[in-house]
Design brief:
Helix content is 40%, strand content 28%. With 396 residues, it is α+β, with helices and mostly antiparallel strands. The chain folds into 2 domains: 202 residues, no CATH class; 185 residues, no CATH class. Helix 6 crosses helix 8.
């Protein structure tokens, strides 16, 4: 039987129930919190998770319908072990039940010894558990084979669901959630409650007694039979239409998923292509700048009286990368200016070292042209001498 079904049997009873059977413990979280704005410590607790409780002392398998719990008043007491003389804190607002559970947030800690001992134990890592005390008002009984929805869970009978109840208090407890645990602090004192019991057992029995075959229904109530047949046909048609729509949506979803994967692969290929193009463009630009710099140096070398056998060595002395900014832009004018100034110094140095009496090993310009262009040693020697001469000139 699903929740919301038509119940035939509803019965109000006065039941005397030991108080300890009105407490429902769970293995849920209790955490301290710090409010820096108010400079106060609070604690939060999930008093009930909404899950069915297996093997309760009195009720067997049981669930409390969170939507049916009534929280009367504006402040709610938090005790220890459900004992009235052990007061721990006060919740100043109703709990959050939006997730089908009962969660108290920012519970004010009291200043008494019991509350402070609880706070210290919690800070030290003591595994407190939570429990709630309620007064049942409406209980739905599930027979064997029946089931019902509660708090987003499906509960199978035999079981009970407390559909409506009054919240009394929540407690922090030192025992686990073993439903067979008996705690001395839980008094066996009985409490008489007015409880409305809901059951579908009678409905099943009446249905069995009044059941008839389809043929009997058709013979006795032909119009009703025809109406049922039409409704069944319409229902089957709608089911088929919905099934077709689901298949169509699923197919469309799978197609979109595949299209997304293809687009992702294409985007990745384009991204790789762009990176490769950027690298190629970078290399092309660098090569273009180098060729431009070499062209400038070559052109300027032709303007000065420097032996050709020294050109390649001299070209290596100019680093064009120093004239390229972060945007890969080449300062041609500045580079040309520096090259021209350097080559002028080289030309002047050359004219000095090529005087007949200046430096041993250097003669006139014409004599220097007779040197072997293939002699790397001679070229290195000449360049070293020119560097030496230029260094002396700079230190004077």
């Amino acid at each position: 039987m699903e929740q919301g079904g038509d119940f035939v049997s509803t019965e109000k009873k006065k039941l005397k129930i030991p108080k300890k059977h009105l407490y429902f413990a769970e293995d849920v979280d209790i955490q301290l919190q710090q409010d820096s704005a108010e400079d106060k410590e609070f604690f939060s607790m999930k008093a009930y998770s909404g899950k069915p409780i297996k093997g309760h002392w009195l009720w067997g398998d049981l669930a409390i319908d969170v939507s049916g719990v009534q929280f009367n008043g504006k402040r709610f007491p938090i005790l220890e072990q459900h004992e009235l003389d052990k007061k721990i804190g006060v919740a100043n607002k109703k709990p959050d039940i939006s997730n089908n559970d009962i969660v108290f947030d920012k519970i004010n800690l009291l200043s008494n010894e019991t509350a402070q001992e609880f706070k210290g134990n919690l800070n030290d890592g003591f595994p407190y558990q939570a429990s709630i005390g309620i007064r049942p008002l409406v209980i739905e009984e599930l027979s064997d084979g029946e089931s019902a929805e509660v708090n987003g869970y499906k509960l199978k009978g035999p079981a009970a669901i407390i559909r409506k109840s009054n919240f009394r208090e929540a407690s922090v407890c030192v025992f686990g959630a073993d439903p067979n645990t008996s705690v001395a602090a839980f008094s066996d004192e009985e409490e008489e409650l007015d409880i409305e019991l809901i059951s579908s057992k009678q409905e099943k029995e009446e249905t069995e007694e009044k059941s008839m075959t389809l043929q009997e229904l058709q013979e006795k109530y032909p119009d009703l039979f025809a109406e049922i047949q039409n409704k069944d046909s319409e229902k089957d048609q709608k089911i088929q239409e919905l099934s077709d729509q689901i298949q169509s949506v699923t197919k469309e979803r799978d197609g979109l998923k595949k299209e997304k994967e293809n687009l992702s692969e294409t985007a990745q290929k384009y991204e790789e292509r762009i990176v490769n193009l950027e690298k190629t463009e970078q290399l092309r630009k660098e090569k273009e700048i180098k060729n431009q710099a070499d062209s400038i140096v070559g052109a300027k070398l032709g303007e000065f009286s420097i032996p050709k056998r020294l050109h390649d060595k001299i070209k290596k002395q100019f680093d064009h990368n120093k004239f390229v900014d972060e945007s890969n832009s080449f300062d041609e004018a500045k580079f040309t200016e520096v090259v021209e100034a350097e080559l002028k110094d080289w030309s002047e140095a050359m004219s000095e070292v090529t005087k007949p009496s200046s430096v041993q090993g250097f003669g006139s310009f014409e004599e220097n042209q007779k040197y072997s262009d293939n002699s790397e040693t001679e070229i290195d020697s000449d360049v070293d001498r020119l560097f030496g001469y230029l260094n002396k000139a700079e230190t004077k």
